[in-house]
Amino acid sequence: MVILGAGPAGLVLGSLLHAGGVDCVVLERSSREHVQTRARAGFLAAHTVRVLDRHGLADGLRRRGQPHGVCEFRTEDGSFHLDYGCLGHGELHTVYPQQDLVSDLVERFLDAGGRIRFDTEAVAVLDADGTRPSVTVREGDGRPDRWHGRYVAGCDGRHGAARRALPPGTVRHRRDHGVSWLGLLAEAPPSLDAVGYAVHRRGFAGHMPRSAEVTRYYLECERGSSAAAWSEERIWEELAVRMRAAEHGPLRTGRIVQRGVVDLESDVLEPLRHGSLFLVGDAASLISPSAAKGANLAVLEAELLARALLDDLRRGDPEPLARYSARCLAHIWRAQEFSLWMIELLHGAPGSGAETLFRDALRRSRLESLRTSRTHQDWFAANYVGV
Ligand code: RFL
Questions:
Q1: Ligand 1 within 6 A of 284 CB?
Q2: Which of the four, 60, 149, 276, 350, has the lowest number of CB atoms within 10 Å?
Q3: Distance linking the first and last C-alpha atoms of the chain
Q4: What is the SS3 assignment for 301?
Q5: Distance from the CA of 282 to the center of ligand 1, in angstroms?
Q6: Is the CB of 101 under 6 A from ligand 1?
């Protein structure tokens, strides 16, 4: 089995297959240090923690992860808290930085005897429609090589080699939500005991705790903005205005250690299987970070695929593999729908015409309903923490 990519999807898949006695190798383009320090997600759904627990992969997050169950909305009509851990199915998030999860998974996999080839870029997946696919690679020193396996799992993200191997008939559902965020990582303690969503006429601002010393912030910005054009002073000023610090108390500031502009997009491929090649995680579907679902979907899909592969390879039952794509797509579309709902909740429409005013009134009504309706709150909580 050849697995492309050592992100959450590839590492969970590799661990489960290795534990099930399947010979597999993970090919990763970047260095070990790079994948173990790449800060991205932080909010793990209860289901994700259960999957990791079930397979003995949750020691680190059980020790150092923080349970989290409250979000706060700050709007032009006032502010309110949602104690979502006590609503819906009563489930919490665990806040655990993705780079820590990836570090744990790498260590666990290698300790168990698993193989990861870092600095090895997959160039092409060949013969995916047959029973002996292979992957051509470029090693760190530029040397070409080739790996063969019964199956290939493309866990190499949106721009990886797996997507390039799909036949022309593959359906690609794409949507640009027309919104961009400046994503920031600050060496600053969280300013609220909650995830903060600020809806402001200057644009959205978000506050996501990561640890006692680090906080992720988002600022809605113009499409095409350059992250470098924002000085630290301007970032903190803009965050304070949009998060209404004058009313709710000052933000705890610190050095901005990572920044980048994210265009909010959805991109789902269908089906997620082409012969002996399977797509998992961001390679299968890209989802905007508005609802914090990407890493959670990656883990869910990796477990589904691992089980299906074990059924096929160990018990000779190909049925679960045949259902893999449809099962994942059901989860993916639910997550896409909720993520879109969040985007519409948090952003006004540009301009000042009739469409803008209509969408704005709708958004305010949604927020009011979320503030006052227990049914709506339960629905939100179940979707917010679930995958
Ligand atoms: P990854 O993590 O991108 O890993 C793919 C790996 O494949 C490697 N690769 C290749 N290797 C070999 N050959 C090639 N040709 C290759 N091409 C690529 C890459 O180097 C990489 O190591 O994908 P995976 O495993 O599918 O995991 C997906 C998640 O990383 C992603 O969905 C999340 O980070 C999304 N996301 C969030 N998800 C959540 O569930 N909760 C969150 O709170 C959350 N916050 C976020 C996020 C994404 C963000 N960014 C990236 C926009 C916050 C941000 C800012």
A1: no
A2: 350
A3: 27
A4: helix
A5: 6
A6: no
pLDDT in tens, 10-25: 999 999 999 999 999 9
Six token digits for residue 102: 């990836």
- Whether the Cβ atoms of residue 112 and residue 21 lie closer than 8 Å to each other: no
Q: Is the pLDDT of residue 1 over 80?
A: yes
- Look up residue 166 and give its two tokens: 């799909």
Q: Is 220 in the pocket of ligand 1 (CB under 6 A)?
A: no
Q: Are strands 195-198 and 205-209 parallel, antiparallel or unpaired?
A: antiparallel
Domain ranges of the chain: 2-173+266-342
Please enumerate in sequence order all residues whose Cβ is within 8 A of that of 240, keeping only pairs 6 or more positions apart, or say none. 246, 250, 251
| Ligand 1 lined by 29 (C-beta under 6 Å) | yes
What CATH number has the domain spanning 2-173+266-342? 3.50.50.60
Question: In Å, what is the CA distance from 278 to each residue of 4, 132, 305, 307, 355?
Answer: 10, 14, 8, 13, 41
Ligand 1 mutation target, pool 156, 285, 336, most atoms within 8 A of CB? 156
* Å from CA of 265 to ligand 1 middle: 14
pTM more than 0.70: yes
